[in-house]
């Protein structure tokens, strides 16, 4: 029976920058240890030269040189890791922007399905008609009528006045003769009251 082979597990996109930063920090610690070791070995090589142990000093300097090359490689790896972290973080930002654009597009498409261009044109037309109608009302109320409007209003007023002023017909029979006037009853003077003393 063959054992099942698990596919390799890759870190999630969100945790990847954190793991890369941890690797970078470990490389920096390693770099710091190498730098301290180089200083010690340089001092030790000087001591060996003073003691006349040139071959041992030479071996120590070769080891030091190799560690310096490692230090340079470590610096390059740290730079690569930092650049990769920045690239991944920027790509994550781009992905969020793209996701936002996608959601926005879907929302716009749904809104466009609800409201067609014809519907918008109809609403705009109705709005313009309502605005024009309101403007006419405002002009009437504000008294800003043109001369033509004033003339038309006066003509209509005269027509209405003529309709109401229809005089009664003149009677065809002769008018009655003058009736004698009746004299009114004279008022008697009221007796004056005398105040008692």
UniProtKB/TrEMBL annotation:
One of its GO terms (biological process) is vesicle budding from membrane. GO terms for cellular component: ESCRT III complex; multivesicular body. It is found in: Endosome membrane. Residues 1-22, 165-197 are annotated as: Disordered. Residues 64-91 form a coiled coil. Residues 11-21 have a biased composition (Low complexity). Residues 1-10 have a biased composition (Pro residues). It holds the Pfam family Snf7. InterPro entries: Snf7_fam. Keywords: Coiled coil, Endosome, Membrane, Protein transport, Transport. It comes from the Eukaryota. Belongs to the SNF7 family. This is CHMP6 protein. The lineage of its organism: Eukaryota, Metazoa, Chordata, Craniata, Vertebrata.
């Amino acid at each position: 029976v063959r054992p099942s082979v698990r596919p390799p597990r890759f870190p999630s996109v969100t945790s990847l920058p954190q793991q890369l930063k941890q690797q970078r920090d470990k490389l920096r610690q390693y770099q710091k240890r190498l730098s301290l070791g180089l200083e010690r070995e340089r001092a030790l090589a000087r001591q060996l030269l003073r003691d006349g142990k040139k071959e041992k000093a030479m071996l120590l300097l070769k080891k030091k040189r190799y560690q310096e090359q490692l230090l340079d490689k470590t610096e390059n790896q740290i730079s690569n890791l930092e650049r990769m972290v920045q690239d991944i973080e920027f790509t994550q930002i781009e992905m969020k922007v793209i996701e936002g654009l996608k959601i926005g597009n879907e929302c716009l498409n749904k809104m466009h399905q609800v409201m067609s261009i014809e519907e918008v044109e109809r609403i705009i037309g109705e709005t313009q008609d309502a605005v024009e109608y309101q403007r006419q009302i405002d002009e009437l109320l504000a008294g800003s009528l043109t001369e033509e409007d004033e003339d038309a209003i006066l003509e209509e007023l005269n027509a209405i006045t003529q309709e109401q002023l229809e005089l009664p017909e003149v009677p065809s029979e002769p008018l009655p003769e003058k009736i004698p006037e009746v004299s009114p009853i004279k008022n008697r003077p009221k007796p004056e009251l005398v105040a008692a003393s």
